[in-house]
Specification:
Elements: E1 9-11, H1 15-26, E2 29-34, E3 39-44, E4 47-52, E5 69-72, H2 76-83, E6 88-96, E7 100-106, E8 112-118
Parallel strand pairs: 1-4, 5-8
Antiparallel strand pairs: 2-3, 3-4, 6-7, 7-8
């Protein structure tokens, strides 16, 4: 059995605002959107993210997630330079002992997004 990919589905009350955040600050493309379903699909390079308004089957008070979404990038410095003054930063760009250079930000819903680059390839 082979797992092929994972695509996070982020719940949000404001799909338009979330699309705007990801397209403006992170360069994602909104490839598909359905207002009747309260759903959208975005992508950038090999990263896919779906957005959805919460449905009646899932209790929802506000966006929550107990982890982070970790996105590996080729040039973490360039991503950092593009977003550092425009978004809420969790921690700034730094190099860690495990040979990753990374930083973390929050999206407009409060989801934690980490961006990292392997220093040894």
């Amino acid at each position: 059995m082979h797992f092929k990919s994972i695509t996070p589905m982020l719940y949000t009350e404001d799909i338009e605002e979330t699309i705007q955040f990801y397209t403006t600050y992170l360069g994602f493309i909104c490839a598909e959107k359905n207002d009747d379903w309260g759903w959208a699909a975005m992508h950038r390079d090999d990263v896919d993210i779906m957005l959805a308004k919460p449905n009646a089957h899932i209790p929802f008070d506000k966006p929550t997630f107990s982890g982070s979404f970790y996105i590996k990038v080729e040039d973490v410095e360039a991503v950092w330079d593009k977003v550092k003054d425009k978004v809420r930063v969790c921690y700034p760009l730094e190099t860690f002992d495990w040979n990753m250079r990374e930083f973390a930000i929050y999206d407009n819903n409060g989801y934690l997004l980490q961006f990292g680059q392997d220093l040894i390839e």
